[in-house]
């Protein structure tokens, strides 16, 4: 009997010791869950739920007030034959190309200029970044006044060189160019800050070693700076593409999508369908197409960057 009791007594501490790691793991899981719960709830309510409801509404013909009529994929089928939709998508593509091939390189050049050993160059850091600090609506209104065909400062400068006044925002062949110019002016400083922070983080020893080997400034940039900036370039490209696909305010303020839909974007067209024509189902279809395109492009860029890192290629 004593032997059996001893066996029980000796087994009890061992069992308690075995359960301690499980309790610690459970307590750790509960603690992590409690800290993550607010962020997860906010993400579900303000990101996942709107995406799901947008997809759901896109299958209905709905004016936003009464009961909707289920139409299946009809809204998406109508998009395929909608000329304004394709014009908007083309304009969004121009915005994407401008953001990637103009804004990002210009931001990099501005960052390199700020880090150049030139006396007084740091004074321009605030000047360069100032356009990004202004509200987009204010920027749009400012440039509408500057591009005014009669009293705008841009046309006054043009007239000095003997050219006639140009109706920048009223002609189909100049309106898109004018708004893209404003976008570049406002958002290039954002990429300047990103590249400036990334360049500052590059070890100075790499440049010193390259200088000892006789490398020129051109060689140091393409062999050291540019390869180490690739993660920043990838992140900037994703931000530029997503931002370009959901662009709305600057175009709506400056042109409203006109003239003759020449500056119409998916965002402005979606807004008009939803709040002017009260065609919420069709607007939801446009919105979900915007989301789907942004997601696909982001996945492609991330995949290409993954294979680049896997192969060890930097340029």
UniProtKB/TrEMBL annotation:
Q: Which CDD domains match?
A: TM_PBP2
Name under which the protein is recorded: ABC transporter permease
Q: How does it sit in the membrane?
A: Multi-pass membrane protein
Check the record and name the InterPro entries matching this protein: ABC_transporter_permease, MetI-like, MetI-like_sf
Instruction: Extract the SUPFAM superfamilies matched here.
Output: MetI-like
Mention any one GO cellular component term assigned to this protein in its UniProt record.
Answer: plasma membrane
Where does the chain cross the membrane? 29-52, 94-115, 127-146, 175-194, 228-254, 274-301
Record-stated family: Belongs to the binding-protein-dependent transport system permease family.
Q: Where in the cell is it found?
A: Cell membrane
Coarsely, its chief localization is: membrane
Q: Where does the ABC transmembrane type-1 domain lie?
A: 89-301
Record's keyword terms, sorted: Cell membrane, Membrane, Transmembrane, Transmembrane helix, Transport
Q: What span is annotated as the signal peptide, if there is one?
A: none
Q: Name one GO biological process term.
A: transmembrane transport
């Amino acid at each position: 009997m004593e032997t059996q009791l001893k066996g029980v007594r000796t087994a009890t501490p061992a069992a308690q010791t075995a359960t301690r790691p499980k309790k610690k793991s459970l307590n750790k899981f509960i603690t992590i869950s409690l800290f993550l719960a607010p962020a997860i709830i906010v993400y579900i309510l303000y990101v996942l739920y709107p995406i799901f409801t947008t997809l759901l509404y896109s299958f209905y013909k709905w004016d936003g007030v009464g009961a909707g009529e289920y139409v299946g994929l009809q809204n998406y089928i109508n998009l395929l034959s909608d000329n304004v939709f394709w014009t908007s998508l083309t304009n969004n593509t121009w915005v994407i190309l401008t953001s990637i091939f103009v804004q990002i390189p210009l931001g990099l050049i501005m960052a390199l200029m700020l880090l150049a050993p030139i006396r007084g160059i740091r004074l321009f850091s605030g000047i360069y970044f100032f356009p990004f600090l202004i509200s987009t609506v204010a920027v749009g209104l400012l440039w509408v006044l500057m591009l005014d065909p009669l009293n705008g400062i841009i046309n006054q400068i043009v007239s000095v060189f003997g050219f006639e006044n140009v109706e920048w925002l009223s002609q189909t062949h100049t309106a898109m160019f004018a708004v893209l110019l404003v976008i570049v002016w406002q958002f290039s400083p954002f990429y300047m800050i990103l590249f400036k922070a990334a360049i500052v983080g590059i070890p100075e020893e790499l440049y010193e070693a390259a200088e000892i080997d006789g490398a020129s400034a051109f060689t140091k940039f393409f062999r050291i700076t540019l390869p180490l900036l690739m993660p920043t370039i990838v992140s900037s490209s994703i931000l530029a593409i997503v931002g370009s696909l959901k662009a709305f305010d600057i175009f709506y303020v400056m042109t409203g999508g006109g003239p003759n839909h020449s500056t119409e974007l998916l965002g402005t067209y979606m807004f008009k369908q939803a709040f002017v024509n009260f065609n919420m189902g069709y607007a939801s279809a446009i919105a979900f197409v915007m989301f789907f395109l942004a997601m696909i492009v982001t996945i492609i860029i991330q995949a290409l960057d993954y294979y680049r890192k896997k192969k060890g290629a930097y340029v």
